[in-house]
C-alpha cells in the first residue's frame, strides 16, 4: 500500500474542531485528544467549557488549545488556522460548528436570518476547507490530511417544520463534501461527512428529543459520543479508502 490518504501525520498533527465548546464538537474534541491528536477547540461565545476541556486534555498529557473565532467571519477563520499552527502542522479539520437558524416557516424567514444561517453552516465550511487544503494538500507542499463535515439526516428528509432552510444548508454541505473529495483526492486529502440524526445537545429541545421515541426506529436520541466515534473513524487510517462518503448515525432514521 502506498501512502494513500491515511496520513501518518494524523496522530502527531493538529486537528481543528470548529464549535468544540459544546455538544457534538465537545465530544469529538475530547475523543480525538484521547486518541492522541493535538486538538484546536474552536468556540464562538462560550469560552469556559472550551478552555476547561483544553486544560483537562493538557493535564492528562495531551495537547490542546481553546481558540475563539466566529466562523461567520472569514478573517476569524483564517486567524483560527494561524493560531492552531502553534500545536503543529495541520492533519485534520472537523467542520462541526452549526446553527439551526430561526425556526419559522419560509414565509416568515428574512434575508438576514438566512444569511447568518448560510454563512455559518455553508460558507464557513467551505472557507475553512479552503484554509485546510492550503495547508494539507501535497500540491502546496503539505502531507495530506482529512476533512470531516457535519451534515444531518435533515439533508435528505427536508427538515422538521420551521427548519427547512437548515436542512437545505446540510444538503449543500453533503454536495460540497462529495465535490471537494473529488477535487483533492490526488492531493492526499480525504473528505467525508457524518450525518447525525436527533442527538441530545442544546440544539435539540426537550419536545424535539421526545419526538425520537416515535420517529427514530431505535426509539431514542443519539448520544454525542456516538456521533464522535464516527468522526474519529473517518479521521483515522481505518477509513483510508473512504472519501466523498456520508456516514449516517441516526438510530435508523
Ligand atoms: P450545539 O450543541 O448547539 O453546539 C454548537 C457549537 O457550534 C458550539 O460549540 C458553538 O459555540 C458553535 N458555534 C455556533 N456558531 C458558531 C460560530 N459562528 N463560530 C464558531 N462556533 C460556533 O450543536 P450540536 O448539536 O453539537 O451540533 C453540532 C453539529 O452537528 C452542527 O453542525 C449541527 O448542525 C449538526 N447536527 C446536530 C444534530 C443534533 O441533533 N444535535 C443533528 C444533526 C446534525 P459556542 O458554544 O461558543 O456558542
Automatic annotation (TrEMBL):
Pfam families: adh_short_C2. PROSITE patterns: ADH_SHORT. GO terms for molecular function: 3-oxoacyl-[acyl-carrier-protein] reductase (NADPH) activity. Its EC number is 1.1.1.100. Signal peptide: none annotated. Residues 13-197 form the Ketoreductase domain. Keywords: Oxidoreductase. SMART domains: PKS_KR. Coiled coil: none annotated. InterPro entries: KR_dom, NAD(P)-bd_dom_sf, Sc_DH/Rdtase_CS, SDR_fam. Belongs to the short-chain dehydrogenases/reductases (SDR) family. This is 3-oxoacyl-[acyl-carrier-protein] reductase FabG. The gene is fabG3.
